Amino acid sequence: MPNLTSLNHLLQNTKRIVDHHEKITDAKGEHFNLFSVLDIETRENKTHSAFLSELLDPNGTHRQGSAFLDLFLKVVNKELSEAQQSEKSLIENFSSQSTTITPECHIGSICHKTKKGGRIDILLQKGTHTLCIENKIHAQDQKTQIQRYCNYNNTKNTVFYLTLKGEDPHKNSKGELESGEHFFNISYRDHIVQWLELCLKEVPNLTSVREAINQYILLIKKLTHQLNMEQKKELETLMASHLEESRFIADNFENMISRYKEEFRTDVEDRLKTELPSYYEVKQERNISAKYSKITIKHKDWAGSDLFFGLEPFSGSGNGNGHMFIGLLDRKAREKLAGIPEEKRVNKWWKQTRPIETKAGNEIKLRDLFSLEKITNRESADYKELVDLVVDQSLIFIKEYEGKVSSFIDKEKKLKLQIAD
Description:
Strand order of the largest sheet: 1-2-3-4-5
Distance between the termini: 73 Å
Structural class: alpha+beta
Radius of gyration: 25 Å
Number of strands: 10
């Protein structure tokens, strides 16, 4: 285990490199990014799959024909083995104006037993050949997901698993399938950035297409924490001279953040238990790293109704693009709740939600540095203020909806009694 002095030396020098990178980014105006301003930077389907699909489409509005598609195929085709490349060259199979690109392509009802069906994020098709791209930013893998996509048109199909840094899918998703053989891992950090930089060479300066691609590259570099080449080389040299310390920090970072998130959730839970009437049961649900980690707030008189309040997500990902919200959860997924107006509906279960916001009106996400810096200093005034914000806004929402929900449940009970009579 490395000593504290060497760890501190590494962190201090890393901070110097990052600070220098920030100054250069400021000078270039690269902190301004439309994807970030519009708060859509981590939406897998509405942002990333949609943008990538448009660039890949030979008939897309970029008016570059199959040029972008051809470059993509050349980049990802390298991931196939030499035998696979000669057997089914992606360039040969898909490099054509007639190739169709379908985002969010439905391939049948999901069946975990037969391992078929689902919704493919991006599907390329030319004749009988298909190429599937499963796109993951922060979402968790679904059960049998990669297996189901590999089974689709399996004799003439190629599956790519796209993540920020090229991670392998969960065992629950891939089963016994092996990456590099049955499917192929690609990353935004390496493959997509490389492809997009090649695309830039195909479009003239001062065009909206070029600027859009530039903005998207900056977004990817932000999501994958990439420095410019000079700072990247300096950081790599520093880390290489402190290999043990670098590995120690990397191995412990996620555990550290999860612990702080868990402590924050516990403090919020304790405050809610203190502030709410005794007829509410407040408890944590799901592991802190789970996509929908939450606090549930159940009224004891609502038992059997499957209606309760929920505060989520504490993981920094999940519904609402990872932004924290308080809402009314309906596990029965009724069509509507009579007398209870919908507010920022998320899906069929969350019909009423309200974002948790800072005093400045910014939504809180327990993945942003703004929030992480606060929750990692439990004794600070900023930390206590954050707990207060979450609890106070939750209490306001609960108080506002409690009577409406109770009235709805009473009417539902009376209707059931009438039907029984």
